[in-house]
Amino acid sequence: MLKGIPKILSPELLKVLCEMGHSDRIVIADGNFPAESMGKDAIVIRCDGHGVPELLDAILQVIPLDTYVEKPMNLMEVMPGDPVKTPIWDTYKEIVAKHDERGAACVGNIERFQFYEEAKKAYAIIATGESAVYANVMLQKGVVIN
């Protein structure tokens, strides 16, 4: 155990977050996301018993978002005509506002199939048990300044 580290961050996940460099991306995927097939060239970490919001909050406690891009946090855009509500996005925006002074302004959307393509290039994908749909988040790591 470590002091000051959220308990939800497993040793495996902490190692990955530590290994990531500036501009590397990590996907926190909902339970429907094809993490294993998208993550053939990425590290896939299983966090099936957890939801995206609590992992997002914990991760943003230990890594900064990239300040060199306008939207270092991206959500998977809802497909046109898909009758889905995404209230979880409001939760994400509240979480990011606690950790980044840009708040919701640093959150963007990526079209679903483009999100998949970008996820294939991510450093890691975290597979969660999140049951909300369109609950996937892609984060771009910034520079840690002490």
TrEMBL record:
This is Fucose isomerase. It catalyses: alpha-L-fucose = beta-L-fucose; beta-D-ribopyranose = beta-D-ribofuranose. It comes from Anaerosacchariphilus hominis. Keywords: Isomerase. One of its GO terms (molecular function) is L-fucose mutarotase activity. InterPro entries: RbsD-like_sf, RbsD/FucU_mutarotase, RbsD_FucU. One of its GO terms (biological process) is fucose metabolic process.
